[in-house]
Amino acid sequence: MELIIAKFGGTSIGNGDKIRKAAQSVVNEYMKGNKVVVVLSAINKTTDDLIKIVDDSVDSNISDKQMAEILSMGEMTSVRVMSSVIESFGVKSEYIDPYCDNWPLITDNNLLEAKIDFPASEAMSKHLMKILDQGVIPVVCGFLGKGPNDEITTLGRGGSDITAFLLGHCLNAAEVIIVTDVDGVMSTDPNKIQKAKKLDKISVEEMRDLATHGAQVLHPHALKYKDPLISVKIISHENGDLSNPGTVIVGPYEGEMMKTTMLYPEPISVVAIVGDGMLKRAGLLSKLTTILAKNDINIFGISAGQNSVTVFVNKKDAQDAYHLLHDMVIDCNELSSLSLGKEIAMLTLVSPDFIETPGIISEITDPLRDNNINIVEISSSQTAVVIFIDWEDGNKAFELVKSVIE
């Protein structure tokens, strides 16, 4: 006998037929002798519809408490429907929502982006074991929590996945199954490339990076709650079978992506190439990077403008890069000239929170502006911001911006 946490996303229970198929898959596992805890998202698009109704009717004149209670209606409806369908198959079921005395997820009082209180949640989760031991299938609201004053809270994006992973940890489950609208993790979006293939397995860190950069299968925040001893897999609701292999997420979570601010210890040099026709020349960047790569010159950054390309290399390689790229300029009609700039410093800030922090660039650059530190170049991804500044300003800039992500 094993304990399984089965989390169904909104599209997996998007209509009556899907809900019935999901319930049947749960009952089938129960009939094998396994204990199953079901975690549900709101039925497909319910949360979006609720948000739109609020926006259209109340707009900003609504409190966080009111919003959390309204949003909770999606999950509270889905668990009641699912529990009823499971019982229609002749198996006892009980829905669990934040109004229940045995509600397992306890949080702080941040109503719309609540943080988990692990000790309290672990203690309350034990009540689910009593229900399971009675031969009952509990159906738990995903996404929702209960604050210190019994107020309803929400866990933010990826909340239902967090619920599933947390319950898996607290109940020492054998497996967490994420049921979604794809067969598993694909090599890329199958809606964009038909040749996309399902992966049999993927590491936790790879899954986190994929999710961080836009893959919709699993939210990256949820992965930090994954217990390394618990098997996790992602499967499609289409099969109606929780034993489907799907994609297994392997390996332990090595901890949250480190929030770091780094000042590269050596000076960087800038080589700027200009030319009116460079945007019309296919393969120009490839040629540039190939020339440097063949000569073992590492590129720390590269940016392309309307009539210029700027390359950042280590100062010790600057003269070699300068001469190599000059030869390229001479041989290419679309390029006119190049220059070797002064020494600059490279600051790198890394945080998984950047992806969901509006205005983060301003928070980083405002202190530099206020201290008259000029930014030579800036680039960003969903988890990192890289700033190039004058070398003599490097240490001061580092001290000014490092507190932004602490």
From TrEMBL:
Protein keywords: Amino-acid biosynthesis, ATP-binding, Kinase, Nucleotide-binding, Transferase
GO molecular function, one term: ATP binding
GO biological process: homoserine biosynthetic process; lysine biosynthetic process via diaminopimelate; threonine biosynthetic process
Catalysed reaction equations from the record: L-aspartate + ATP = 4-phospho-L-aspartate + ADP
Domain ACT, residue spans: 349-406
Any one Gene Ontology cellular component term annotated for this protein: cytosol
Origin superkingdom: Archaea
Enzyme Commission code: 2.7.2.4
Keyword Transferase: yes
Alphabetical list of InterPro entries matching this protein: AceGlu_kinase-like_sf, ACT-like_dom_sf, ACT_Aspartokinase, ACT_dom, Asp/Glu/Uridylate_kinase, Asp_kin_monofn, Asp_kinase, Aspartate_kinase_CS
Pfam families to which the protein is assigned, alphabetical: AA_kinase, ACT_7, ACT_9
Record keyword Amino-acid biosynthesis present: yes
Pathway as given in its UniProt record: Amino-acid biosynthesis; L-threonine biosynthesis; L-threonine from L-aspartate: step 1/5; Amino-acid biosynthesis; L-lysine biosynthesis via DAP pathway; (S)-tetrahydrodipicolinate from L-aspartate: step 1/4; Amino-acid biosynthesis; L-methionine biosynthesis via de novo pathway; L-homoserine from L-aspartate: step 1/3
CDD domains on file: AAK_AK, ACT_AK-like_2
Family: Belongs to the aspartokinase family.
Name of the protein this chain belongs to: Aspartokinase
